[in-house]
Amino acid sequence: MTLTATVLSDLPTIAQQLLSFAGNNRIFLFHGDMGAGKTTLIKALCVELGVKGPVSSPTFAIVNEYQGAQNRIYHFDFYRLKTQTEALDMGCEEYFYSGDYCFIEWPENIPDMLPPHYISITISVLNDISRKISFEEF
């Protein structure tokens, strides 16, 4: 499925559609260039899941934890990893198989550690404010 966001106010609807599409799948892989809007979409998803506090990129912490209305949410940013072993050392597999939501930025840095079932989201920049958001289930 492919959707287009032409303004930030499109994101709540896109987040609702994405969560509906995912059903019980709670692993989301986010692909896109730096600055494409991965964290911005994750913020919208967290709001839809009932997160009340701030949502920010875990670039330096690698993982942030949020509490939604009914679920725990883990937000990963693997951009700075030098090896997959770093992710293994932090126990990322325990998070991935916890049954909680996992939003993973830069999953291409841990290709051998990803669960077999997930939703893949690709964000493409169309212009300064518009984004094409494609997602599919694996």
Describe this structure in words.
This protein has a single domain, classed as Rossmann fold (3-Layer(aba) Sandwich), CATH 3.40.50.300. The protein is α/β, with parallel strands linked by helices. The chain contains 4 helices and 7 strands; from the N terminus they run βαβαββααβββ. β3 and β4 form a beta hairpin. The longest helix is centred in the N-terminal third of the chain and has 12 residues. The mean pLDDT is 94. It has a 7-stranded mixed sheet with strand order 1-7-6-2-5-4-3, covered by helices on one side.
Which helices and strands occur, and which strands form pairs?
Elements: E1 2-5, H1 11-22, E2 27-31, H2 38-48, E3 63-67, E4 72-77, H3 84-89, H4 92-96, E5 101-105, E6 119-125, E7 131-137
Parallel strand pairs: 2-5, 2-6, 4-5
Antiparallel strand pairs: 1-7, 3-4, 6-7
Helix pairs in contact: 1-2
